[in-house]
Amino acid sequence: LLIEKEILWTHSYGCPILLSPLDVVVEYGASFSVNCSYSATHQFGLSWDGFDDTVEESEEIFRFVDKVTDWETNLTCYMSSNETQCSQDLPITIYKTPDSVFISTVNHRGPMTEGQQYELQCDVHNVAPVQNLTVKWYKGQTLLHQTNFTDTIETPVNETVTLLIRPDRADDGAEYWCEAELDLGAEGPQPHPTNSSKPLSIKQEILSKCKQMNMLYLSFSVLLFQLLQKFCFVETGLH
């Protein structure tokens, strides 16, 4: 009489597997390593990704990933005996800093007029993961605004954010710029990876209202002088 033993599968909860580190944050194209062990008193077999031919009768096994080039890279450590098997996933966050961060004005060229509203645009190219991205706007060293993202896509994306400004005389010589920051948590690189745009200077680009009035007054004065000159010429008969 052949009696088959039922293998009990469990995942994470109640499983004595210990991973070190508990999770991995790695830059795309870089390498990482992880150790898998267990806290049980009995002898178990350990393997990565459930391959039976790699089961080791050991209290710990080591895994080295030479180069991360797959955005869907994942690892699972399995612990097994004759009757039970459980597993623990290794959370892996793969990140990529932007190829470029660029600032520009939207639908505008040339001098800016004091008191009018303008739109600045920040383009962030090829960054991941976007849910860890923050785009910050600065005027000089003053933080003006920041934008976070909720998309859960893990592969690189392009993002565009805008900022409305209304320049005045105090902005003459001011520099606006934007910065892309990746906050990857405690396991990620410290300080946070950042990429910044070149500054957009509006120095001597603000045409003040006073200057506009002066130009208008000058034009009006010239026109008035021409009219008076013509009128006087007709009335007096001067040649």
UniProtKB/TrEMBL annotation:
Keywords: Cell adhesion, Disulfide bond, Glycoprotein, Immunoglobulin domain, Membrane, Repeat, Signal, Transmembrane, Transmembrane helix. It comes from Cyprinus carpio. GO terms for cellular component: membrane. Residues 98-201 form the Ig-like domain. It is found in: Membrane. GO terms for molecular function: integrin binding. The keyword Signal applies. The lineage of its organism: Eukaryota, Metazoa, Chordata, Craniata, Vertebrata. Pfam families: I-set, ICAM_N. One of its GO terms (biological process) is cell-cell adhesion. The keyword Transmembrane helix applies. This is Ig-like domain-containing protein. SUPFAM superfamilies: Immunoglobulin. It is a single-pass type I membrane protein.
